[in-house]
């Protein structure tokens, strides 16, 4: 009775490795999608600030 981990057979290793690679690609894709959402939100914030500045300038005139 040893507590050492057993090495899976080659078929299991290949399946697990393929699954890990797929998961890594999915995470990378999700990260890129998240970056797009963040960029869109940052653009909206900039546009809001610009509108506020323009509105404040109109009040001063």
Structural overview:
The protein has 61 residues and is mostly helical. 84% of the residues lie in helices and 0% in strands. It contains one helix and no strands. The protein has one helix at 10-60. The longest helix has 51 residues, at 10-60. It is rod-shaped and about 80 Å long.
Could you give a quick summary of the protein structure above?
The chain has 61 residues and is mainly alpha-helical. It is 84% helix and 0% strand. It has one helix and no strands.
Give the SSE layout.
Elements: H1 10-60
**What's the pLDDT, averaged over the residues?**
94
In percent, how helical is the residue content? over 70%
Instruction: Write the element-wise H/E pattern from the N-terminal end onward.
Output: H
Q: What best-fitting shape do the alpha-carbon axes yield? A: rod-shaped
Give the count of helical stretches.
1
Sheet having the most strands: none
Distance between the termini: 86 Å
Strand portion, in percent?
Answer: under 5%
Q: Indicate the radius of gyration in whole angstroms.
A: 26 Å
Low-confidence stretches: none
Class from secondary-structure proportions: mainly alpha
How many beta strands in the DSSP annotation?
Answer: 0
Summary tags:
61 residues; rod-shaped
